[in-house]
Specification:
elongated; disordered N terminus; 12% helix; mainly beta; 8-stranded antiparallel beta sheet
Length: 290
């Protein structure tokens, strides 16, 4: 998979270390959850000296041998979370698996307000009737000098397998904005396409309906299947670029974000085989029209 990873995925090695049981139980007069779920905690957090905060003092911390990783536990929403502070980023990963992402947004929004949200999940088809979804759902808030990310990650199967139920992980991440990238929600485009060939002929191709995901650097079709070649997506304020290869024919797309114009070069066996032109419009959804 291409692009940016959520903190839960990007720190897979660190989370494996947490599973070794380096954590200790939280204790103290102040309930950690009341601090974690309090906007004032994060609005006033001094990330240069977090040890001075009431939250810090409400937790019992263990440190790795070199002192670079600090670990604890906290109970939030009735579920125990592993806590890790590394490089100025504070991670909370739920010990229990969840069957879905339902409820995460509502629970977090009740404390932090309406979030910026994005569903970067992708579908991996195995056959016409079987597929797996890589779930990546995120919600983000900026509160004072803190960026907060609530994420739900994992995989689900379609059709569901009763012997192997879906297990998703809920995570919370708190950090200075410089340490967490800004969430950029994906958006849908519908683009017309006309192919032109060296012999002067033209052909009206089917419209291209796709989700553009700048945060994960992906382009998917309406079903969530990645269509852009790995590592080819690039976005600026003025253009979107990506390549799509099918049956050894590569199309290098450029979309002008100002005018909506689409252009592409068709490449086959290292030789240019034609061009594509068209027009893109933003869509609210890519669901069936009827």
């Amino acid at each position: 998979m291409n692009g940016r990873f959520y903190p839960r995925i990007a720190t897979a090695g660190i989370c494996a270390a947490l599973a070794l049981g380096w954590l200790s139980q939280a204790s103290g007069a102040t309930d950690p959850a009341s601090q974690i779920l309090n906007k004032a905690t994060w609005a006033g957090m001094d990330w240069q000296h977090p040890e001075g905060s009431a939250l810090w003092k409400s937790l019992t911390w263990d440190a790795s041998d070199d002192g670079t990783v600090k670990k604890s536990t906290a109970t939030i929403w009735g579920t125990q979370f592993k806590v890790m502070l590394l490089g100025g980023v504070l991670h909370f990963d739920a010990n229990d698996a969840f069957p879905s992402c339902d409820g995460l947004e509502a629970k977090a929004a009740a404390h932090f307000g309406k979030p910026l949200s994005d569903d970067s999940s992708i579908t991996i088809p195995f056959s016409e009737t079987r597929s797996m979804k890589m779930v990546m759902v995120a919600y983000q808030w900026d509160v004072g000098g803190t960026r907060i990310l609530a994420s739900c990650t994992g995989s689900t199967s379609s059709p569901a397998d009763p012997s192997d139920p879906d297990k998703l992980t809920w995570s919370l991440t708190f950090a200075p904005p410089a340490h967490l990238p800004k969430l950029i929600p994906k958006f849908a485009l519908r683009c017309t396409r006309t192919a032109s060939y060296p012999d002067g002929t033209t052909h009206d191709a089917t419209d291209l309906a796709m989700w553009i995901d700048p945060y994960m650097k992906n382009v998917t079709n309406a079903d969530g299947v990645v269509i852009a070649d790995n590592g080819t997506f690039a976005a600026t304020d003025s253009t979107l670029r990506f390549s799509v290869t099918r049956n050894a024919i590569r199309s290098d797309y450029v979309i002008d974000r100002i005018t909506g114009s689409l252009s592409a070069t068709i490449m086959q066996n290292g030789q240019q085989g034609g061009t594509i032109s068209g027009k893109c419009d933003k869509a609210s959804t890519l669901g069936a029209k009827f």
